[in-house]
Amino acid sequence: MNTDKEKDNLSPFKPNDHLANERTYLAWVRTGIGIMAFGFVVVKFSLFVKQIGFVLHTKVTAPSHGYSSIIGIVLVALGTLSILFAFLQYRRTKRQLETGEYKPTTVLTTLLTGVIFLISILLIAYLLQSV
Known about the structure:
By secondary structure, the chain is an all-alpha fold. The chain has helices spanning 4-10, 15-55, 67-99, 107-130.
């Protein structure tokens, strides 16, 4: 007669694998929320600078290029997309774990790294231009 422990050893789907998949998904969600929060801060930074000037009774000139709004919106969109792609990856990994045919992929990590690197280069160029 098989015990529960022996049945678990025969099953290709282990609870620890599911929990690890879930932790990875939640880490991607936190990353996406962080990217969106940073985008929000970038969009609202010029408003913050104007408010500081008002409180200090000084005239503060914020750059009028308007790039910060575009960059902030792109960051919020990137955070949203990273959460969406993380969910799709979570579901894909869950299916693979259930069928015992897990194949790791680095597409999400590579894509997000490339996009963040590109946005970082654009932010550096923008900051150098305003100095």
